[in-house]
Amino acid sequence: MLRAVADASEKDVISLGFQSVRVIMNEGLATIPVQCLDECILVTGAYGAQKTDINISLTAAGLLWTATDFIVKGLSGRSVQKANHLNEEVQLGVSTEEGDIPTSEEGVKRNPLQQLVDYNKLFFSVFSVLQKLGADDRPEVRNSAVRTLFQTLCTHGQKLSLSMWEDCLWIYVFPMLEHVSHLASTSSKDEWHGKELGTRAGKAVHMLIHHSRNTAQKQWDETIVLLLGGIARLLRSFFPLLQQLSKFSSGWAILLAFLKNSILNGSKEVALAAINCLQTFVSSNCPKGNLESSFVKSVLDIYELVLQTSPNYKSDSADKVKQEVLRGLGDLYVQAQSLFNDDMYLRLMAVMHLMIKSSMNSSDYDSELGSIPAVQRGILEIIPMLRPTTMLSSMWSPLLLELLCYLNGEESPLHRNSKEIREQNSDALANGTKRSSVEQGHINGTGTKGDTVVGCGWGILFIEKLVPIMVNLFLEAPPNERCSASPQVIQGLGRCMNTRRDNPRGTLWRVSAECFNRVVTDEVRQENAECGSDMNSYRLSRARFWKEVADVYETFLVGSCGRVLSSDVPSADSATADESLEMTVLTVFGDSVLKLQKEAPVEVLQRLVNCLDRCASRTGSLPIQTVGLLPLHCSRFSLGCLQMMFSLCSCILKTSSYPAVSETSKVSISILTKRCEVILGQFLADENDLGDRPLPSVRIEETVCVLQELARLILDIETANALNIPLYLKDALRENQSHGRAHLLSLLPTFSELVVSREPRVRELVQVLLRLISSELGLQRLT
């Protein structure tokens, strides 16, 4: 009678009939006749399927959840009863001959309800009803049914036998997945109009429907999202149990095929749900040790195929999907690091390379608007995750070289690998089109605008973010891997620093200069023993390292620092920041590189000290007519370089690496004395040329600085021996142990000319220097 009422046309009659069904399902399942339980479930399903009142349908789905609670309690009770019965058999085994054990017929008489109820059948009756409701054309009803089905499995799955799991998956879950997917693909894409609410100005006014739900297909996609979420929960909670099923392999292949198709051909919501399913599977099972390498490879295959197909994936949501796949790729490596071998890691790198290639010269203009495109943001997120583990230490070089190729404008070392992967998987790509070729660019200062694309088609904004990431990875690498990659790292950073010449307002050169300071400081302090036992390779690599360091300083320090690079007047804050960074580069150059180096070749030391000398010579090399026009920051930088040269020659700051510092001092002292002689000689010439007219303050300050530093400078014996003074003087100074002021002797002819200078400060300092010379020679006044 209640079943017949479910199909009635009167809403009140249906509601009245359903009240009785609710009473039965909520309160009467434990007491009604056994043969009626199955019928109760079917009648409840009929009320769920009726189209008159949607609230009744939704409540009916909730009643089915109540029914599963009752059924599962019965299943648990039957298991307990069976265990108790076995215990009784063991305890009473001695008296079996006397017939003390009750027969099965007697057990049925004692508790007829538990012995006659087929709980398995009832459980599957509920699933059958939920499966039918899961294909209902009303989104709310089918979504409620899907939630109920998976909630039942997740809540009571531990109490189900393996055979019941087999039936649940193959009879209900997979068919539902296939059927809903078919209905979604064949549903209408026409936009819906909301319910008419009235009229305004003679036009109908409709209820607004969100754009994500305004077509039948979008509504079905939401159901697929719920199905994928339910499957993700099953994989998270029961994967070890599911692996024990006899048909697990075929079921796993079906699921992977569905997930792959959902990502490639589904809507954005469906694709993201499929990606989340894979991510949940990996993140929940890897830490527990439930995954074998084959499962990781199968997930990697899907990500690889999706990203290879991405150039042909032209929907509006493609970038978001690619970004999530990239995040999933990084998460896969982080969670399953112990299962990765060298081949799998190289595949991972090749996939990343494909994404990098596909985002070159992107058609969007996010970078022009001051932001990074979504795909590039995804790449930047996963790169730090890819640091090789101890078992994959040999993969540091491929990783660093792969990143460096985007700074140096070179062909990626994985380019050939990515071509092979594309050829192997070309048959699997749907609707694939030939990828357009893009010519790689170089960061060589040829651009004319700050927003021009540099380096392999990347925007400057991307490279600004990539540089510190690459440097952080480099500094984390093992010493032997760092040793082999350090020359390329220095070269790549130098290319980025050189962009200052054409884009002084940009931030790429600033970021690169800061990173360069970090790298060169850390590399100079590396010990030989940390870089492996192959000393020949080590020496070759270090020679290349020092050559690249010299190239960078010659180009950046000499070519860009302490100069006016643009006719536009920068803001005060920007100018101050730039000058501070220049002085930081200079300080690191002198204190951390030249003073702490232990193995730089002599010819490289000469190049490096000459860099300082060239920068220190700028003020003195300008003619008297233009030196007064030199900006203050330029003259300050020139004086800073001059003072650094004095610091290199001083013996006061000697460190534990005395031989290396002494070598630097010996190279520097001869260059320094020549520079001092030129500066002092230029001062004399300018003073003679101007006559009674005053000298520019810049020229006076430079000369005063030189004289003051000469008075403070004290040399050690080895540095003094490198001076260009007569041998007999060197011998005499060494015997008298008065070599500390030997540099003043080489400049004595110049001092003798400066005693008649019109500048009072210059005359006073020259007198101080002459007294020091007298003291050094052991000469005193006769009276």
UniProtKB/TrEMBL annotation:
Coiled coil: none annotated. This is Mon2 C-terminal domain-containing protein. InterPro entries: ARM-type_fold (IPR016024), Mon2_C (IPR032817). It comes from the Eukaryota. Residues 29-294, 543-725 form the Mon2 C-terminal domain. SUPFAM superfamilies: ARM repeat.
